Amino acid sequence: MTPTLAPGLAATAFGAYLTVTFGGDLYFARRSKHWPTVEGRVRGCDVSPMTAERAARASAIIEYEYQVGGVRYTSRRIDYGGRGFGQDAGNVLARYSEGEAVEVRYDPSEPKRAILMPGTTPGNFGRLLFGLTILAVGFLLLAS
Asked: Within this chain, do residues 20 and 74 fall inside the same structural domain, yes or no?
């Protein structure tokens, strides 16, 4: 491999990874609106460790448990749309409290896949566009 191919290959591989990952998030975000619901219970609420310099990268952590078909599950996934991250972390934490009953949506084909907040957000489309942009840059670097 020549040194001039390395940046193009790296960008293409990274862009492909992001596109597949964020595309999957968009897929599940869209499907989650139609998933069945069960009652769950919040086990704990926290925010990822942060400093003032890293406040934009904070993440809300909501741990909850629920039961489907007699099997008990625990999850920390809030959604597939990026809510609870960055400046929105505090807003999401304010919605939940430890011990509170919550509505949990779960994937009927994979009940361990569950969320608290269904549907898509503009973040889904922005992240997918970012992945596609990195992929396109990689292709352009390889073509030049």
From this structure: no
